[in-house]
């Protein structure tokens, strides 16, 4: 946060006195106990409170200066959250003095430290041979003195990390079980992510939003300059052969003939956001020329040559504005001509000498060639 021009209580009172004295025609009494001194000090207290509020608001509006729950609420605006605490887990031994009958350690039973400050709950563990989902707990068969079961601290965080032998008290009475203990220390409880590492990870999170995605690459291409566009074909080389992990970028600056500098700039932009372990190529489009001819009839009061010239100009603008990979339909050429004021009929429409559409690949672009309107 930028350094704000704050003032101390003494500075506020002094500035108040200076301002009043500057407006007065004679010396003003600002000795301790005077009315004006009391007003100045009261105003100083209120000013400090307002100044404190301003500083607090400034601090809460930035991740770099927010802390704790304020930082969490700031993160929440971006769908980001700090990593939560992890509860400690470990193996707890449930034992008995007389192993005569079968006993069951049910899921949900509790054990605790001797002073009762840290509580653990028995949780299901299908990898434990003693666990029975049907019976809802861990079976201690006849003749067996003890069974090890998985327990988890009821409070997430480092509070559950205790030394060996510390979890030695039954919190729930279990028939056939006399005592408990943990042979090994519990050390895998982890506190919630601290402010500093959360801030550092948030920077990576924001950076990841603009990288390694199709939209990220498209955005990078569009950000190179005005009218820069790109068509991306995934898992395919420029020659059309399949190559997994490769993508082809057809970049254009609106002319169909992007310069080598433009292609280099696009490649640099793509490199900054490309997916990890992927390769790519940046190329300009291959041009397909569209030669158009047609005959038009113009209405009374219109100059035929002027109308024909306007039709030719509109056809050229339409074709050149199609963009990379966009087909040119033969039938639509008549519509472009009819849209020009004064045209009453269109005949003999040919596109490259025929009536077929021009259908480019993503690597190609249609541009206007010779346009003849009679």
TrEMBL record:
InterPro entries: Barrel_Baseplate_J-like, Baseplate_J-like_C, Phage_Baseplate_Assmbl_Protein
Domain Baseplate protein J-like barrel: 98-189
Pfam families registered for this protein in UniProt: Baseplate_J, Baseplate_J_C
Superkingdom of origin organism: Bacteria
Domain Baseplate J-like C-terminal as annotated: residue spans: 291-373
Transmembrane segments: none
Alphabetical list of PANTHER family matching this protein: PHAGE-LIKE ELEMENT PBSX PROTEIN XKDT, PROTEIN JAYE-RELATED
Record-given protein name: Uncharacterized protein
Species for this entry: Cupriavidus basilensis
